[in-house]
């Protein structure tokens, strides 16, 4: 009997759709964790992919910059009290260049302008995506090596690990490791020892 051959899919389709660009069957990796979580709770809720969210944020920044420029041009000058220093770019900027929660919750020394917040978000998303992809490629490599030279058990373990990593990219859900539980072998061994002990006492 020929051994089972474990094959890895090169690309997966997901169950998510973007309400803006109308793309369908997207994996969870195309969405933020918050957007993907909303869709899992209610499949009918409208969610936006990372590309569309980034485009909307860029448009909002452009509008804010235009508003700030217009206000500055119409005023005799901007008072020092109306400027806030961004902790990211170290630039003194008007209130319109900051999100309200940055000024209200972060405050001086920690507040970041809209451009710096967006840049940090993009960098974080790209780093997370690169880390997940690198992990997947490493696990795929392990599965390929096991398929070529490993035992059946090694083939199964490495293929399962690679599939779990790929599924995490598609669904956004981390794999769950199941424990033995109360009905596991550990509890059975404990009962067996107890029974033997009682039997020994009767002897």
Describe this structure in words.
There is one protein chain. The protein is an all-alpha fold. The chain is 57% helix and 3% strand. It is built from six helices and two strands, in the order H-H-E-E-H-H-H-H. The protein has helices spanning 33-41, 50-74, 100-106, 114-149, 152-171, 185-202; strands spanning 83-85, 92-94. It has a two-stranded antiparallel ribbon with strand order 1-2. Helix 4 (114-149) runs antiparallel to helix 5. The longest helix has 36 residues, at 114-149. It is elongated and about 70 Å long. The protein starts with 32 loop residues before the first helix and ends with a helix. Mean pLDDT is 75; it is low at 1-10, 76-80 and 184-203.
Quick synopsis:
The protein has helices at residues 33-41, 50-74, 100-106, 114-149, 152-171, 185-202, and strands at 83-85, 92-94. With 203 residues, the chain is mainly α. A two-stranded antiparallel ribbon has the order 1-2.
């Amino acid at each position: 009997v020929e051994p089972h051959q474990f094959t890895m899919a090169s690309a997966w389709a997901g169950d998510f759709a973007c309400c803006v660009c109308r793309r369908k069957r997207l994996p969870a990796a195309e969405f933020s964790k918050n957007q993907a979580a909303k869709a899992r709770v209610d499949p009918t809720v409208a969610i936006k992919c990372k590309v569309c969210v980034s485009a909307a944020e860029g448009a909002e920044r452009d509008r804010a910059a235009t508003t700030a420029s217009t206000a500055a041009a119409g005023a005799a000058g901007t008072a020092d009290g109306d400027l806030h220093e961004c902790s990211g770019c170290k630039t003194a900027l008007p209130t319109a260049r900051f999100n309200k929660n940055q000024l209200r919750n972060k405050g001086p020394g920690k507040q970041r302008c809209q451009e710096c917040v967006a840049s940090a978000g993009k960098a974080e998303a790209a780093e997370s995506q690169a880390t997940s992809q690198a992990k997947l490629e490493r696990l795929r490599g392990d599965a390929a090596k096991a398929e070529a030279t490993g035992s059946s058990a090694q083939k199964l373990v490495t293929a399962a690990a690679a599939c779990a990593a790929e599924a995490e990219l598609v669904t956004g859900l981390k794999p769950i490791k199941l424990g033995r539980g109360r009905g596991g072998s550990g509890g059975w061994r404990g009962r067996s020892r107890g029974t033997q002990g009682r039997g020994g006492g009767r002897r």
